[in-house]
Design brief:
Strand order of the largest sheet of chain A: 3-2-6-7-8-9-1-10
Strand content of chain A: 15-25%
Number of helices of chain B: 12
Radius of gyration of chain A: 22 Å
Largest sheet of chain B: 6 strands, mixed
Structural class of chain B: alpha/beta
Number of domains of chain A: 2
Shape of chain B: globular
Largest sheet of chain A: 8 strands, mixed
Number of domains of chain B: 3
Number of helices of chain A: 11
Order of helices and strands of chain A: EHEEEEEHHEEEHEHHHHEEHHH
Distance between the termini of chain A: 50 Å
Number of strands of chain B: 9
Order of helices and strands of chain B: HEEEHEHEHEEEHEHHHHHHH
Bound molecules: iron/sulfur cluster
Strand content of chain B: 15-25%
Oligomer: heterodimer
Structural class of chain A: alpha+beta
Chain lengths: 339, 317
């Protein structure tokens, strides 16, 4: 049974959630919309489809402490960081970002399980929101993601004046238990109009032939990486806005009388990525660039039942300073059907 | 027109390589590219070519002569890189390309226009076709910030100039700097804290900056002792930007790339512009990249130099 909430009651509904749980939602700060702590004073921006950073930070933050070493005279006290023990709600996640959590799960929840990530996943309730106005940079449809039917613990659809909810898990159902029931059919029209736009998206039908795992060597050795990577700044914007990039580095911060060991997002686009004693095996930007796209389009699917590790959110299309992105790679290197 | 001229140049020297922009997937995609005689037809120059090709030249050095398209603002960066001996002037045939201001796709999106399929210029109006219908917007409302503070349409370095330019500068470019100066230290601190706390340390500002041309940045170097892949705390978050602003002091041409590329919309250019304004005030007007071979006031010495530390204390006057 679906539930519904008049839109004007949304602030009160959110306030109700925030009284017992931490609430994270797309809010505007300094002119940018990102997932951040919601309070009554926040500017909620459910009209913004793509936050700058993806929602993954709620489970895999950019920087997080692992352990503290503190000098006490001649002894060193060791304080491992604690995992999250409180519940939180992540509100307003789009279908692409919701899929990214499933991809991250495959990495962080497979043996050995990452305790920090696992605790956040266990304590988080994901409320998704269907994409009323998909944008030209969206290409989620290529990865079997339906913006009109987002996953998560609780899915939501927004019309002019109403928010509709469909619970997919008990956690999700608990959030909307107090709301009025309604008929499933009430969202059909909204869903149809979203799907109509999704079908019209300019990048909705990319040809991914040739990126399956068994073409690994061909794709790796393709001479066109040289040209594709030419303008790449090696900046890491694409990586840090991406919902599925999952690499991290472990760093020490010397606090004078102790060490704070933290992990932070890393980017394969950086020159010191996975630096080893002998140096690096990706000496130029060509190899680094290739790594990012091979990982998303070839290595990940070949290790994960054919699932690509791009969800087509299009953030890198909007943010790459050089307009050098994954769709260029797919279109350039994909095997043309007539070939 | 530009491509025709470039083809003419090929008749004298078929070994030329060309540096310009190429159209991509979205209406705004213009990727810096290097072209040969065969691929030259793909070169494009239009109102979306906001990126500065001067820094890109550093990674495109070959033994061939390079023909490069430079906008007026890009020409300052080119000169500065030649002054710093990172580029050799003789290796380039510089085509100064006219500029009527470049369009900022992000600004169009921020107005709420979504699903943009194409953008057509009709005089002072942009006709925008979207997934949700057609709409119009005045061109001048969505120019890049750097174009609103344009240094002028004269190419400071060019072997030839193609195309027309139009003035796009509006108002006083130091207006926001003056506002920041007028704040109390606490207000100013709060302003920069809010802005810099948005930083995701993607390094796009640094990597796009033509004045940041170190082969290995200290912040990337594990042996430097200050390697900084992510800020561990607020202090480190600020530090990167302030060190960077000081490192480019006197060499920053105010090209605006840092703010243009920042995915979080941080107005980084204001840090540099503040320093430019102070340098001008203390040592007389100076524009980095005005000509090749200049000595900038911070690396030069004259007996008449002012002593800012003696004249000003603690940020006050
Ligand atoms: S692809 Fe674009 S965003 Fe990614 S590192 Fe290269 S220049 Fe930066
Ligand atoms: S690669 Fe780009 S489009 Fe794909 S998930 Fe990452 S940011 Fe989104
Ligand atoms: S700053 Fe001036 S010269 Fe440069 S792109 Fe803008 S308008 Fe053109
Ligand atoms: S471009 Fe912006 S987000 Fe990226 S490092 Fe620079 S200031 Fe930070």
């Amino acid at each position: 049974m679906m539930k519904k909430l008049p839109l004007e009651q949304l602030p009160a509904f959110l306030k109700g959630i925030s009284e017992t749980k931490t609430l994270v939602a797309p809010v505007e700060k300094g002119g940018q919309v990102n997932f951040d702590l919601w309070t009554e004073d926040s500017t909620l921006r459910l009209d913004v489809l793509k936050t700058v950073k993806s929602a993954k930070g709620a489970f895999f933050p950019q920087v997080e402490d692992i352990v503290h070493f503190q000098m006490q005279g001649k002894n060193i006290d060791i304080h491992p960081a604690e995992v999250l023990t409180e519940d939180f709600v992540l509100f307003g996640v789009r279908a692409c970002d919701a899929r990214s959590f499933e991809l991250l799960d495959r990495v962080f929840l497979s043996d050995p399980t990452d305790p920090f990530y696992a605790a956040r996943r266990a304590h988080g309730t994901v409320v998704t929101l269907a994409c009323n106005r998909p944008e030209e940079t969206c290409f989620c449809t290529n990865f079997g993601i339906d913006g009109a039917d987002p996953a998560g613990d609780l899915s939501a659809w927004m019309t002019e004046d109403t928010l509709y909810f469909q619970a997919n898990t008990e956690k999700g159902a608990a959030l909307v238990a107090g709301l009025a029931d309604c008929d499933d059919g009430e969202i059909t029209e909204t869903q149809n109009s979203i799907r109509e736009i999704l079908n019209k998206l300019p990048l909705s039908n990319l040809n991914l032939t040739g990126f399956e795992g068994d073409h690994l060597k061909e794709r790796f050795d393709d001479p066109r990486w040289e040209e594709l990577s030419r303008g790449c700044l090696g900046c890491g914007t694409c990586t840090f806005v991406c919902p599925t990039c999952q690499c991290y580095d472990v760093k020490d911060f010397d606090s004078g009388n102790g060490i704070r060991r933290f992990r932070c997002w890393d980017s394969c686009m950086f020159s010191d990525f996975t630096l080893m004693a002998h140096g690096t095996n990706r000496p130029t930007q060509k190899e680094r660039f290739r790594q990012r796209f091979m990982h998303k389009l070839v290595y990940f699917p070949s290790n994960n039942d054919g699932i690509y590790s791009c969800v087509g959110c299009g953030r890198c299309l909007e943010k790459c300073p050089q307009s050098n992105h994954i769709v260029n790679v797919i279109k350039t290197l994909g095997v043309k059907e007539d070939a | 027109m530009i491509v025709n001229r470039l083809q003419e140049l090929l008749q004298d020297d078929e070994n030329l390589q060309f540096v310009g922009w190429e159209k991509g997937e979205t209406p705004f995609d213009r990727t810096p590219k290097t072209f040969t005689a065969e691929t030259l037809g793909n070169l494009c120059y239009d109102s979306f070519c906001g990126s500065n090709l001067s820094k890109y030249l550093l990674s495109q050095k070959t033994d061939k002569k390079t023909v490069v398209l430079l906008k007026p603002c890009d020409s300052y960066s080119f000169n500065q890189l030649c002054t710093e001996r990172r580029l050799n002037r003789d290796a380039y045939h510089v085509i100064g390309v006219g500029c009527k201001g470049k369009i900022d796709g992000e600004k169009i999106r921020k107005t709420g226009i979504k699903g943009i399929l194409s953008v057509r210029e009709e005089g002072e109006t942009l006709k925008i076709e979207t997934l949700y219908g057609t709409t119009e917007i005045p061109r001048k409302d969505v120019l890049l910030d750097k174009c609103l503070a344009c240094k002028g349409k004269e190419h400071k370095c060019a072997d030839e100039v193609l195309g027309e330019s139009e003035d796009t500068c509006v108002g006083d470019k130091y207006e926001t700097v003056a506002k920041l100066e007028a704040m109390t230290p606490d207000e100013r601190f709060a302003f920069w804290r809010e802005e810099l706390s948005k930083c995701i340390r993607c390094n796009a500002c640094r990597n796009a900056c033509p004045a940041c041309s170190c082969i290995k940045c200290v912040f990337d170097n594990p042996n430097s002792g200050v390697q900084n892949k992510a800020a561990a705390d607020d202090f480190e978050e600020n530090l990167f930007h302030i060190i960077r602003a000081y490192h480019v002091a006197g060499r920053c041409t105010d090209c605006g790339e840092c703010s243009r590329v920042c995915p979080q919309g941080i107005p980084l250019h204001l840090l540099n512009r503040k320093i430019i304004r102070d340098v001008n005030e203390f040592y007389g007007d100076y524009q980095a990249g005005d000509a090749i071979g200049q000595r900038h006031p911070l690396t030069d010495f004259t007996f008449e130099d002012s002593e800012p530390n003696a004249e000003r204390k603690g940020g006050g006057k």
